[in-house]
Amino acid sequence: MSLAPKDDETKLPKPKAIPPKIRYPFWFGGSAASFAACVTHPLDLGPPPDTLSAALLRQLTYSTTRFGVYETLKQRRTQTQTTDPTTTTTTTSPPPLSLPTLILLSSTSGFLGGLAGNPADVLNVRMQADFTLPEAQRRNYAHALDGLVRMIRDEGPLSLAKGVWPNSIRAALMTASQLSSYDTFKRLCLERLGMTDNTLTHFCASTAAGFVATTICSPVDVIKTRIMSATPEQGKRGIVALLQEITRHEGVSWCFRGWVPSFVRLGPQTVFTMIFFEQHKKLYRRWKGVD
Question: For 169-224, how does the pLDDT look when each residue is reduced to its tens digit (9 = 90+)?
Fold first, then answer.
């Protein structure tokens, strides 16, 4: 009696194994951005050292939210996978998300991050601008928590929401141009240029993402900074009046005024954030026994 396998059995395709899904901790993005802030803080328009607490508070609120929501939405969007025709088990990874989908997910994540991080962002802008003001006009916040307490005590809780809508729109633009472009450039490096998933690839993709983010967000950054650093009298004029004043005094070129220093600040911030973020994920996969 022959024990040879039947022809139809030998022709069955073997299911392709895929790596197990990893759900990364929500706080990875905020942690990576905080590490990056410690490295790039001296480049952030030359602020004094005591503003670091405000920069870290901003990353722990704003970046934690936008990265965490973005990664969660991406994972949920890619849950639909193909299955082997002869079984019910998943055999192949889903196709990568399209650029429009990534932009939609990252914009939503960035807007929520802008809402969560607005108090720290107002504080960060004020503390950076404080040392440029005359001595009599300085707020002299000792650190981030002192600034938050004094803002609520002296100006009321609504002071924490100052500029929240333009800031949230800017956060949506920043996250869309930064994270979605990073994922896109990284995929191009891996699929079209034959690069491997290593630090060099992360550096190249994040540098390109920083260029895109700076170009898109430069006009919004000018508006946001002017609004958040405005005096109470200037704040009563509204956004339209501020734009008219800027255009009248500086011309239409204000949109990209300061692009180079913005890229000097945002470029390294993007590079270090994404490299630290990828290292967080790499160490987590290794700890889970996947790598």
Answer: 889 999 999 999 999 999 999 999 999 999 999 999 999 999 999 999 887 777 76
Cα(239)–Cα(165) distance, integer angstroms? 11
Phi-psi region of 46 (alpha: psi -120 to 50; beta: other; left: phi over 0): left
Confidence at residue 136, expressed as pLDDT on a 0 to 100 scale:
80
Task: State if pTM tops 0.85.
Answer: no
Residue 31 to residue 282: CA distance in whole angstroms: 14
SS3 98: coil
**Tell me: the pLDDT tens digits for 239-251?**
777 778 777 887 7
**CB-based contacts of 239, cutoff 8 Å, min separation 6:** 166, 223, 227
- pLDDT greater than 90 at residue 70: yes
Task: Give a three-class secondary structure readout of 18-72.
Answer: CCCCCCCCCCHHHHHHHHHHHHHHHHCCCCCHHHHHHHHHHHHHHHHHHHHHHHH
How many Å is the Cα radius of gyration of the chain? 23
Return d(Cα 104, Cα 171) in angstroms, integer: 13
